[in-house]
Structures are given as C-alpha cells and as structure tokens.
Amino acid sequence: LDVAASLRTRLRGVLAEADEFEYGVDSLSYLADADESVDLDVKVVARRSEGGSCTVTVDAPRQPSAADLSRLEAEALSSKVKSPVKGLSSDDILEASRLATAAWRKVPDPVSEAASLVQTAGLFYSRGEFTAARDLYLQALSISRSQHDTAGAAEAANNAGYCELQVGDTGASKAHLDEALILWTESKGRYGRATALNNIGIWNRQTGSFGAATRAYGEAWLLFSQRDAHDRGLVLNNLGLSYLSMGSYARAIEALTTAVSLLPPAERLARGRSTINLGRAYLFNGDWRMAARFCNQALTLLQGSSGDVAHALNNLGQAYAAGNLLAQAEQAVQD
Prior knowledge:
It is a single chain. By secondary structure, the protein is mostly helical. 70% of the residues lie in helices and 9% in strands. The protein has 15 helices and three strands. The chain has a three-stranded antiparallel sheet with strand order 1-2-3. Helix 4 (110-126) runs antiparallel to helix 5. The termini are far apart. Mean pLDDT is 84; it is low at 12-38.
C-alpha cells in the first residue's frame, strides 16, 4: 500500500495519455529466519476511471515457497563466490562454493548444480589441486550429459581433460578434449572450439607430437577473435614453444615476439613467461645477448612470483654462460 500511495501523484501525468498504465515491478524486502534479505516482487497497475480519478492497485505478493527460498539461498551463495567481499579468505570462498552446489542440488536444478561444480573445480585448479578439480569436473560432465546440456558438457569435458593432462592421465585427457571439441563444433561455439584446439595442441606438444601441436595452435589462432588479444597471445606463446621443441628457432622467435606484443600490459605474469620463452629462443638460435636482454625484462615483469623469477634467473645464467660471462652466470644461478 505504501508503494501504491507513493505512485498516485507520479502517475497522473502518464494516465492522461492512456486509460491504463502498468508501472512495472517494485520490490519489498523482509528478513528470513537466517536474517537474509528476501525480495518480493510487487506488480503495480494504475487505471484511470471515466470520471478522471486515478486508481492504483497492487497485486498481493506471493509468499515464497520452500523451493523459492532454496533457490534464493543457492543464488546468494553462488554470487558470494563470483563476487567475493573484500577480506574473504580462499577457504571461505571454497566453502561457499561447496554450499552453493549443495543448495542447487536441494532445489533441485541439475544444470545450475553442474555449473556450481565447475565453479568449485576452478577454485581447486587455481590452488594447483588438479586431482580434486578433475573429479569435480567429471561430476559436472556426468550431470550435463544427463541433462543434454551441450555447453555445460563441453566446458566440463575440456577442463577435465586439461586437469587429466596435468596429472599424467594422457589417455583420458585426449578423450575428453576431443569430446569438448566435437560438442563445441556441433553447437558452432567458435570460442569453445578455439579453446579446445589450444588444449589439444598442448596435449600433442607434451606427448611429443609437435607437428600436430602446431596445426592445432594454428587452427585455434584463426578462431580466436582479433579483439581477443589475451587468448591470441597465449596461443602464439604455445606455438612458439612447439617451434622451440622442433628446433625451428627463427619461427619460435617470430611467434613469441608477436605473443609478447599481443598480451595486455596488465597480464604481467603471462607477458613475463612469454618473455622468458623468447629469451630461450634467442639463446638456442645463438644470440646470447638478446637472450640476456629478454630474461632481464622478464625479471621485471615477474616480481612477486618466486618460481617464475627463479626460472628467469636460470635462463639468464645460461645466456651469460653462453657469452662466457662466467661471474654473471654464477651470480644469476645463485640468485
């Protein structure tokens, strides 16, 4: 009624042009048992009578059912994971994601449950826990298949395949990466196809099939949008690594130079790693000075990532050693 009263004056001008005007939906809130704010949608309709008076009616809101409350809880938990509040620890975010999955299962909403499993798996992946991530991706894949959710199944299969590659299960990895490519091809998902091809390229490079890897990377490069500098840079970095493994150092330098130029300045970690690879390409190509130059550039980009800094220093030491600067080489290796 408060909503209706506040609208009476505002709607008179609108009603001069029409006999009936549907204002739309407003929201009221109340506190549930768990002190969570629950929104109720209120439909507001205004009508003008023959005498010119204005009548505003408000549909009585429906009290939320148990299923509504379960869905609201699941949505709130999922939102907490996607946009965590400042100060929330990684363990708290992981726990919220697990609770969101359980909430979606309770609704029940299998598609959203699978999406929540993928979300939780991504958190494990970011912590380097590839086995735990793989298991959750496989659960999501099973649910998505049963729901005929092509997009969900493709994403889960792709991510499971990549995790399986990280833990050395190359057979299962290839099967799932191929499944993802087939699903994204059938659904005409251009970005998904490019992602799957890039990962298939990684699979081939890590298993020694460098020719197949370069072909997969080449196809992925053509599929990624020209506006997508980040992914185009990453796939060219991978192509450069494949050329390095094949001994095609000039091609590796070309691909890696373009990769570094494409990767956005904000992507310091990716740029730093590509810069190390570019330095290695120059070293293998016989130019230790350029190798040292790019390894030093990588050190600046990689500050704060101790493992990557150590990798850059190791390659810098190799470059100095190739130039017979033994003191500098020893210092870099010690650092």
